[in-house]
């Protein structure tokens, strides 16, 4: 079936934030071939000046679209499958939810993803941002990522773990924005005690429910945590009780935001959560402008108080000309 394009689709429907204007074009890919067809058709009919304006989403849990919308094509990746091969490797589509993958691992008695209990979003998104929590990261279990080169008309690439160039909440795919799209991946886990796997996974799910405002629209963690190598010896001593390992010693962004007196601060319909200050939540029809203004306020305040440059973890999208 030929690729189906929609126009003037509200992007607020496709993100956790429930924020964003309309996309000029929108298409959904449910299998690999769909991605190729979508790109092939789009680069044929789209006006020349916006042909390179392509943005990839899956579950939209870590993205903030502009109020103006997106002047180009948004592709929703819905490639959703999970398989366990004869070598004990889990293969999954980029659009598969992390919740489903974690549940599958638990059912199979495979250990290594307990840290991801309750983690929102898609498999592809977790790979792209090297998602992590409770000392674990995607890079710990990824052995292969399959992607498509959008520039070279559908060339398929397969990278091993090292070639993915994983870093702190980063991978090679972040640097290849709009040039490649993750299609699927493979993870290798270890057989474990099923009861213990369930207990650890549920504990992390419960922690998120208790400590994070998951009942409100947000993009999860707004800022990356701060490597203790980037703070002064005096700060390291003063904040010693707040330092945690994730996966190396860091000062939590939530701690700095709280210390800066920003908990509960509001701009328009956006608020810095009192429950977890690194969550900037949509409490009353917030706009992208509201959230971005709150982010800038937090960055400026923390820079002035502590001399620390905060780096966004949430992906902020531009309108594109």
Short recap of the structure:
The chain has 321 residues and is of the alpha+beta class. It contains eight helices and 21 strands.
Question: How is the topology of this model organized?
Answer:
Blueprint (H helix, E strand, L loop, with lengths): L5 E5 L11 E8 L2 H14 L8 E4 L5 E2 L5 E8 L4 E3 L4 E5 L4 H10 L2 E2 L11 H6 L3 E2 L2 E2 L4 E8 L5 E6 L11 H4 L4 E9 L1 E2 L2 H18 L14 E2 L5 H6 L5 E2 L3 E3 L1 H7 L6 E2 L2 E3 L7 E3 L5 H19 L8 E2 L5
Parallel strand pairs: 2-5, 3-5, 4-21
Antiparallel strand pairs: 1-2, 6-7, 7-13, 8-14, 9-10, 11-12, 11-13, 15-17, 16-17, 18-19, 19-20
Cα-atom radius of gyration? 20 Å
Instruction: Give the domain tally.
Output: 3
The CATH architecture term of the largest domain is 2-Layer Sandwich
Count of extended strands: 21
Structural class: alpha+beta
**Percentage beta strand:** 25-35%
User: Main beta sheet, described?
Assistant: 5 strands, antiparallel
Shape type: globular
Portion of residues in helices? 25-40%
CATH topology of the largest domain: Uridine Diphospho-n-acetylenolpyruvylglucosamine Reductase, domain 3
Q: Which strand order do you get reading across the main beta sheet?
A: 6-7-13-11-12
Rounded to the nearest angstrom, the distance between the terminal CA atoms is 31 Å
Average pLDDT taken over every residue: 95
**How many separate helices?**
8
Poorly predicted ranges (pLDDT <50, ≥5 residues)? Answer: none
By CATH reckoning, the class of the largest domain would read Alpha Beta
